[in-house]
Structure formats: C-alpha cells, structure tokens
Design brief:
145 residues; alpha+beta; Immunoglobulin-like; Type 1 dockerin domain; 2 helices; 8 strands; 29% strand; binds calcium ion
Length: 145
C-alpha cells in the first residue's frame, strides 16, 4: 500500500482487524506491507494522524488476493490532514500563530501584560490592559468545550 499524507504523519492500517502503523517520511510518502494474507477479499482501513490529535479521514479499500498472485498493490492512497482554520473573529487571539486559539495564547498575553505589543489591543483603545484580557477570556470561554 503506498500513498501520501502529511509529512511525518503516522499512518494506521488495519487489515482484517489486525492493526499496524508506520510513519510517513518527510515528504509525506508512505509504504506499508501486509504479509501472508489468505486468498480472497480483505478489508483495509487506513487513517493518518499527527500530534494534537489531528486525524485524516478514514479510507477503506477492499483488495482481493487471487491464486498465483504474489503481490497485490494498492497505490495512490491519499490521506490529507486538514489543519482546522480558526474562525475570522478568533484569529486575532491566536497570538502564537499556531492556527488555534488556546491556553498558550492566553499565557502569551499574560507575559506581555501591560506591554507594548499593540497586537494585543483587542478593543483598539491604544492600551493593552484588563479590558483586552477580559475580551480574550470571554471569547476563550465561549469556544471552550
Ligand atoms: Ca494559538
Ligand atoms: Ca485595549
């Protein structure tokens, strides 16, 4: 089985209920082999995952091992991992620019509290202060699950 996914993502493969996994290379290419399959049809399920519990969609293939055929190849498997994009009204709070609005961003704000970074001036009154922090927190609480 060969295909592509995100660089260095871990590809999980389940063949007939037996799980295996392999890390894709730096270009996102992966090659996985399953040995000793019986004749007949086999269900193959693939899913790639990255840190921060980002997963690709699951893909399923059915491959048939025929008599006399030594190698059956499934190629061109694509397992893209979408990076979730932050809603536009939350992007300004993504202070460390990792594509997510989380606790790390709040810590960054606190580190530069009363600082000069006008990127943190969420209400555009020319000061970074408690009112900006409360704006950030109220958005954070409204998105926290
Ligand atoms: Ca962030
Ligand atoms: Ca302000």
């Amino acid at each position: 089985m060969t295909g592509t996914t995100a660089p260095n993502a871990v590809v999980h493969v389940v063949v007939d209920g037996v799980e295996n996994y392999q890390q894709a290379d730096g270009a996102g290419n992966f090659t996985i082999q399953a040995w000793g399959l019986d004749l007949g049809q086999h269900l193959i399920t693939l899913q790639a995952s990255e840190g921060n519990s980002k997963d690709s969609q699951q893909k399923q293939y059915i491959t048939t091992v025929s008599p006399g055929v030594v190698t059956t190849t499934v190629s061109g498997i694509e397992l893209p991992i979408d990076t979730p994009t932050l809603p536009a009204n939350l992007q300004r709070f993504d202070l460390n620019h990792d594509g997510q609005f989380g606790f790390q961003d709040i810590l960054l704000f606190l580190e530069d509290y009363h600082g000069s970074n006008m990127e943190f001036d969420f209400n555009h009154d020319g000061r970074v202060d408690l009112s900006d922090f409360s704006i950030m927190i109220s958005y954070y609480l409204s998105t926290a699950r």
